[in-house]
Amino acid sequence: MARMRRLWANLCGSWFQLSRRFPPALLDEMAAAIAAGERTHLGEIRFAVESRLAPLAVLEGLDAATRARQVFAQLRVWDTELNSGVLFYVLMAEHRIEIVADRGIAAKASTHEWANLCARMRESYAAGQWRSGSLDGIAAANALLERHFPGDGKANPDELPDRPVLL
Questions:
Q1: CA separation, residue 34 to residues 117, 142, 145, 156 (Å)
Q2: Which of 105, 122, 128, 164 has the largest count of CB atoms under 10 Å?
Q3: CA-to-CA distance for 109 and 163, rounded, in angstroms?
């Protein structure tokens, strides 16, 4: 039954509003927020938004958490010197937000902290506040990374692109 609900959401949900909810101006703001935060810590943030999953993938059991790990690998978020990559993955059709942290970050920041951040973003998105939900989520991640993975006073090389990707 749950699989059929997920299939319906991916077929008929509001996934088609991807470019309306994440217009170029918002993507620019998000990229700037990611870049600004990365100057204060040693983490690398990627933000990916996917409108929906393919129906066959849903029927085969692909879920948001698994897809987030696939996107983590696809975008090479793991490919940082300090294993300090963090991926925000938003699956619009299913109203899911997943955060995948590389092992360097996961060793210091708890899954509970990331889950709370996801819950706050989900509340904002549910209220139609896509801009503030995204920017507040990025700000919270930057604060979390600054606390657990602070900069060392040297320039942190920008190892991953800051601009969010729409899949």
A1: 15, 8, 11, 13
A2: 105
A3: 23
Nearest one of 21, 9, 92, 89 to 55, comparing CA atoms: 9
Residue 45 and residue 35 in contact, taking contact as beta carbons nearer than 8 Å: no
Strands 165-166 and 44-50 turn out to be: parallel
- Cα–Cα distance for residue pair 77/79, rounded to 1 Å: 5
State the Cα–Cα distance between residues 12 and 18, nearest whole angstrom.
14
Name beta bridge partners: 150.
41
Q: Both tokens of residue 29?
A: 């703001």
Report pLDDT digits (tens) over 98-146. 999 999 998 899 999 999 999 999 999 999 999 999 999 999 999 999 9
Residue written as token pair 């955060």: 99
Interhelix angle 111-126/130-148, rounded to 10 degrees, is 170
76-97: pLDDT as tens digits: 999 898 899 999 999 999 999 9
The phi and psi torsions of 144 (rounded to 5 degrees) equal -65, -45
Phi and psi dihedrals of 8, rounded to 5?
-60, -45
Beta bridge partners of 44: 85
